[in-house]
Structure formats: structure tokens, C-alpha cells
Amino acid sequence: MKEEQSMKICSKCKIEKDEAEFSKLTSQIDGLDPRCKSCKREYSQTDKWKAYANAYKQTDTYKAYQATYDKTEPRKASRDAYQAALRQTDANKEYQKAYRQTDAYKERLKGYEQTDARKEYKKQYYMRRKAASTVAPSLPVAAHV
Fold it and tell me: Which of these, 42, 44, 60, 72, is most buried using a 10 Å CB contact count?
């Protein structure tokens, strides 16, 4: 025998709908959000909601959460996989090529090349290369017969 679906009235549109039309919200007595999914979707598109969401993203609580969330292993693995796949797309390669031609990129690169850390890295790099080339044994020359 088929179980009858429970109905609930949306607090926003005041229409009686099936419980499947409501998101779960464990803080409510019945465990469901008081607004139906379509009303919530509609509200999330308003400027009022967008202003609220942007204000929340500026809070210290949100920033602290994001800092710890971004460092978790599953998140890092997911982000790295996404970025690796993105780098392989033709659209991204064209974008990078065009970006490298801009003045903004050239100025940024020039600023980076002048940092002390970059200068120290280059110095160490060239010293390692020079040491590797002088230590490498010379190959014996084959005798001509």
C-alpha cells in the first residue's frame, strides 16, 4: 500500500505543497524549512540577499572558516584537480597568451623580478647550475681507428 505524502504550507507563498518541495532544516520542529524551494530560489536572486551574502563574506568568522577549509586535504585535492584540468583547455591557453601580452602583466612581472626573494633565488639557481656543470665528469672521446 502506498504511503500518503505529507503536505506543508509555505510561509512565503502560502501555498500547500508536498514536503519534498521543502529543504531540510533540522532547527525547525518538523525538520523542514518554512519556505519552499522555489520561494528560497526566488529570494536568493534578490539584491537584498546578495548584499547580505557579501557582507557576511567580509566578517572575520567567515574568513577564518575559509582559511581552514581551503587547507583541508580533500579541498586541496579537489582544487588542484580542477585547476590542472582548467590549464589544459584551449580557452585557458588562449587567455594566458593574451594576458601575457598586456601591460598589466609586464608591470607585475617587472615588479616580481625586482624583489629580494627573486634575486636570491636566481643567485642560488645559477650557483647550483655552475656547480653541477663543473662537477660533471667529462665523457671519454672515442679513439679514431
Answer: 42
pLDDT, tens digit, 9 for 90 and up, residues 82-93: 999 998 999 999
What class is the 7-57 domain?
alpha beta
Per the confidence metrics, is the pTM higher than 0.90? no
Domain map of the chain by residue range? 7-57
Rounded CA-CA distance 75/11 in Å is: 36
